[in-house]
């Protein structure tokens, strides 16, 4: 069987004839030259129904012809739904306001956040002031303890070590440093302490008389102690540090922020020194309870190490800290501030700095469950949304850019909840991914739509 047109063409030709056909009443041409009588409304409705019926009959006949249009229209392919999508917008957090000390000279080194901060672990991250040597005051005692323990090592942090018995010369040191206005602790003639406790008395309450007594015990004389100290400083790369006596009361005991960061790492890695420096106080027979001069211990993550105050010369602090910023393991901090105007100023500057570092890490919500990221639409009016299938957040340091990407595929079932891709956000070392889902179902076109929209069929 052959026809002159395809099924869609035949239908279009038929529709064109309907549009072009005159709509006058039968026989009206013969009556145009004379007046016509009014048509009864009921008769008008009857005539209209007859015309609609006739048109429907002709239309059905047309559908039945033309090579099986109905079968073609009901089975012909239709265009895929049209997709429109956009990568989710991302807000970059503001730059961190790092509160570096405003006075003196300082340095800070951070380990555990190299991927965030862009520096090597343990390297000096920030400095203020100059790198010229400054008086370090009682930070000297940290060096004295390390030099003594290098010559007389203890097995571990709890090992008491050998016993020191104090004689008349040692007792005289109490009066010597009392007159100088230095920090002291009782040292009765004939009293004794373990090396561990003697070093603790030197470091925690910062007793100058104990620093000189321990140095003399360890090396036999102050001259021998200073020779050993120079060798120890050179062996550990502390070339900008000068020590002329074991307590720090002499302003010629000087160092630089860079050297003191190195000293802080050495002290933090020494089990005995680090454990002693972390104690808030010390209780011994006779002296009783003695507070640690480092009143910041336990605040803002501070875990050690040693204060130092000299007038003139200013207040100093060599410190370690552990900061939990939400990246898993805490950050390990070694920092120093030299030449502040007062102990209160040191404490404020250091705690404010550490808190500003912690505050520089921000948990940013990058995805909300159900957030629209695109849509699908069809010629027959069925629509659906592309949405994020989960909520997600990303830990960001300062104003590190957040980069968003999205990948989607053509749905297979077109049903609500189908996973059709994923969205990913990256900032520094962190990445988070959530699924992209179909919200709504794309229904197929109805038979009537197919029959009445041949131009949309493939």
Order the strands across the largest sheet as they lie in space: 1-14-15-19-18-17
**Mind telling me the CATH class of the largest domain?**
Alpha Beta
The total strand number stands at 19
Number of helices, where a helix is a run of at least 4 consecutive DSSP H or I residues: 14
Overall CATH architecture of the largest domain: 3-Layer(aba) Sandwich
| Helix/sheet category | alpha+beta
Unreliable segments of 5+ consecutive residues: 1-34
Shape: rod-shaped
Measure the end-to-end span.
23 Å
CATH topology of the largest domain: Beta-lactamase
Strand content: 15-25%
Q: What is the name of the CATH superfamily of the largest domain?
A: DD-peptidase/beta-lactamase superfamily
Question: Helix proportion of residues, in percent?
Answer: 25-40%
| Total of domains | 3
Average pLDDT, all residues = 88
Largest sheet: 6 strands, antiparallel
CA-atom Rg in angstroms: 44 Å
Please tell me about this protein's structure:
With 458 residues, this protein is an alpha+beta fold. The chain has three domains: 7-75; 82-93 and 365-456, Peptidoglycan synthesis regulatory factor (PBP3), Domain 2; 105-359, Beta-lactamase (3-Layer(aba) Sandwich). The chain contains 14 helices and 19 strands. The protein has helices at residues 7-20, 28-31, 41-64, 69-75, 114-117, 140-151, 168-179, 195-203, 208-219, 222-235, 257-269, 271-277, 343-359, 447-452; strands at residues 82-85, 105-111, 124-128, 134-135, 163-165, 192-194, 254-255, 281-284, 288-291, 302-310, 314-323, 331-340, 361-367, 372-377, 383-388, 392-397, 403-408, 419-427, 430-439. A six-stranded antiparallel beta sheet has the order 1-14-15-19-18-17, with no helix packed on it. Helix 9 (208-219) crosses helix 10 (222-235). The longest helix is centred in the N-terminal third of the chain and has 24 residues, at 41-64. The radius of gyration is 44 Å and the shape is rod-shaped. The two termini are 23 Å apart.
């Amino acid at each position: 069987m052959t026809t002159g047109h395809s099924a869609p063409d035949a239908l279009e030709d038929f529709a064109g004839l309907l549009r072009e056909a005159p709509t006058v009443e039968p026989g009206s041409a013969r009556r145009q030259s004379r007046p016509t009588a009014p048509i009864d409304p009921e008769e008008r409705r009857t005539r209209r129904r007859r015309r609609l019926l006739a048109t429907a009959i002709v239309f059905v006949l047309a559908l039945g012809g033309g090579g099986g249009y109905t079968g073609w229209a009901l089975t012909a392919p239709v265009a895929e739904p049209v997709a429109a999508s956009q990568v989710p917008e991302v807000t970059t957090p503001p730059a961190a306001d790092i509160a570096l000390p405003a006075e003196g000279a300082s340095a800070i080194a951070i380990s555990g956040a190299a991927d965030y901060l862009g520096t090597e672990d343990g390297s000096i991250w920030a400095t203020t002031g100059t790198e010229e040597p400054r008086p370090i005051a009682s930070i000297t005692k940290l060096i004295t303890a390390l030099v003594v323990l290098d010559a007389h090592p203890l097995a571990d942090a709890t090992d008491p070590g050998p016993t020191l018995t104090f004689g008349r010369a040692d007792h005289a040191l109490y009066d010597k440093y009392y007159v100088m206005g230095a920090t002291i602790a009782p040292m009765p003639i004939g009293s004794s302490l373990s090396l561990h406790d003697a070093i603790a008395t030197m470091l925690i309450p910062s007793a100058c008389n104990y620093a000189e007594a321990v140095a003399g015990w360890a090396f036999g004389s102050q001259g021998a102690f200073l020779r050993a100290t120079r060798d120890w400083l050179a062996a550990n790369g502390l070339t900008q540090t000068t020590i002329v006596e074991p307590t720090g009361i002499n302003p010629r005991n000087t160092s630089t922020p860079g050297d003191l960061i190195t000293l802080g790492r050495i002290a933090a890695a020494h089990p005995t020194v680090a454990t002693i420096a972390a104690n808030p106080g010390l209780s011994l027979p006779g002296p009783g309870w003695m507070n640690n001069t480092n009143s910041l211990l336990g605040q803002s993550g501070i875990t050690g190490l040693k204060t130092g105050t000299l007038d003139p010369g200013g207040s100093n602090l060599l410190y370690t800290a552990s900061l939990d910023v939400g990246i898993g393991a805490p950050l390990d901090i070694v920092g120093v501030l030299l030449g502040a105007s007062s102990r209160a100023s040191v404490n404020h500057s250091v705690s404010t700095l550490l808190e500003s570092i912690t505050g520089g890490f921000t948990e940013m919500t990058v995805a909300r469950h159900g957030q629209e990221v695109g849509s699908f639409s069809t010629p027959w009016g069925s629509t659906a949304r592309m949405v994020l299938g989960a909520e997600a957040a990303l830990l960001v340091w300062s104003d590190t850019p957040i980069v968003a990407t999205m990948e989607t595929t053509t749905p297979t079932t077109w049903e609500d909840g189908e996973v059709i891709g994923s969205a990913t956000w990256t900032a520094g070392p962190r990445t988070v991914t959530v699924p992209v889902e179909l919200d709504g179902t794309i229904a197929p076109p109805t038979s009537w739509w197919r029959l009445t929209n041949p131009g949309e069929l493939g």
